[in-house]
């Protein structure tokens, strides 16, 4: 094997080893974080050290991202599912403690892998809210969307929007279904405005045959680190990448990873595009 190939393989192995070994914050770091975090944050989860340091290569192989069922997603999602995929406590926490804290008045939002409900808060006056999803009937039923696009993001990997079109990109309970996550996270970055934020949220429910294979081998904490690694190694520049477990009032847990597209003029790590906090 050429030296360059050995280096990439070694870097990938080290990154995955750190991911599987875990990289939660030390007790002192966690205490410092929790002292300034709202009570809705149950814990903060750190990225694997090698990834957090920056410059790590994309570590995931095609085999690790292969799904048990590689049949056409269009067929799998052809019938509408007008059901909630997380319980009411998890929905309420996502709405109030995540979107309710991170959305700003007038935000233009792209809801990726959207469905018949987006769990967005009623108290924030948003701008355009565009849904991209797999089922037209579900998208038409969603009252929060101002427009929608039916698109299979595992087949057609280019989002049909201009660069810098949105202030927020959201994905609820579907990041594990993205079969080409490196390209899609680059696309999230492209369509975000400078200072805009991507918000990935999920629980522990899934269609196991349709998630990427590696997801099924990871603990819930490691899945947070896995998504943080998407942000940090996809090849697009995301900053302020943070992973959380958020408190909920019922059984389903809630995990969130956020990352921002940098401004042309850097802000301090804790500031959003207008100087507001970008953390939970």
Topology, please?
Layout: H1 3-21, H2 27-36, E1 41-45, H3 49-52, H4 73-76, H5 88-102, E2 109-114, E3 129-133, H6 136-141, E4 147-150, E5 166-172, H7 181-191, E6 192-202, H8 220-233, E7 239-246, E8 254-260
Parallel strand pairs: 2-3, 2-5, 3-4, 5-6
Antiparallel strand pairs: 1-7, 6-8, 7-8
Overview of the molecule:
The chain has a single domain, classed as Rossmann fold. Strands 1-7-8-6-5-2-3-4 form an eight-stranded mixed β-sheet, sandwiched between helices. It has helices at residues 3-21, 27-36, 49-52, 73-76, 88-102, 136-141, 181-191, 220-233, and strands at residues 41-45, 109-114, 129-133, 147-150, 166-172, 192-202, 239-246, 254-260. The protein is of the alpha/beta class and 280 residues long. Residues 1-38 and 265-275 have low confidence and may be disordered. The chain is built from eight helices and eight strands; from the N terminus they run ααβαααββαββαβαββ.
What is the H/E string? HHEHHHEEHEEHEHEE
Strand order of the largest sheet: 1-7-8-6-5-2-3-4
Query: What share of the residues lie within helices?
Result: 25-40%
Q: In one word, what is the shape? A: globular
Distance N to C terminus: 45 Å
Helical run tally: 8
What percent of residues are in strands?
Answer: 15-25%
What number of structural domains do the residues give? 1
According to DSSP, the number of beta strands is 8
- Class computed from helices, strands and strand pairing: alpha/beta
Spans of at least 5 consecutive residues whose pLDDT stays below 50 are 1-38, 265-275
Please state the average pLDDT score: 84
User: What oligomeric state best describes the polypeptide chains here?
Assistant: single chain
- The assigned CATH architecture is 3-Layer(aba) Sandwich
């Amino acid at each position: 094997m050429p030296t360059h190939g050995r280096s990439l393989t070694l870097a990938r192995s080290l990154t995955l080893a750190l991911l599987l070994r875990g990289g939660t914050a030390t007790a002192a770091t966690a205490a410092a974080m929790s002292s300034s975090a709202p009570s809705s944050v149950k814990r903060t989860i750190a990225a694997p050290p090698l990834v957090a340091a920056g410059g790590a290569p994309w570590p995931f192989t095609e085999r690790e991202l292969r799904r048990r069922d590689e049949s056409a997603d269009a067929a799998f999602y052809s019938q509408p599912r007008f059901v909630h995929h997380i319980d009411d406590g998890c929905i309420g926490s996502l709405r109030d403690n995540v979107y309710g804290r991170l959305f700003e008045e007038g935000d233009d939002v792209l809801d990726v892998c959207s469905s018949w409900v987006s769990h967005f808060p009623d108290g924030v006056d948003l701008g355009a809210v565009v849904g991209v999803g797999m089922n037209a009937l579900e998208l038409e039923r969603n009252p929060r969307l101002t427009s929608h696009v039916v698109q299979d993001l595992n087949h057609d990997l280019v989002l049909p929007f201009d660069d810098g079109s949105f202030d927020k990109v959201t994905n609820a309970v579907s990041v594990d279904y993205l079969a080409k996550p490196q390209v899609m996270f680059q696309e999230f970055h492209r369509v975000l405005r400078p200072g805009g934020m991507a918000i990935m949220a999920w629980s522990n429910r899934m269609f196991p045959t349709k998630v990427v294979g590696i997801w099924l081998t990871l603990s819930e904490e490691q899945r947070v680190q896995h998504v943080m690694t998407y942000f940090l190694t996809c090849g697009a520049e995301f900053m302020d990448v943070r992973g959380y477990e958020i408190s909920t009032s019922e059984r389903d847990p809630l995990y969130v990873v956020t990352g921002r597209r940098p401004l042309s003029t850097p802000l301090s790590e804790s500031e959003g595009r207008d100087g507001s906090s970008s953390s939970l």
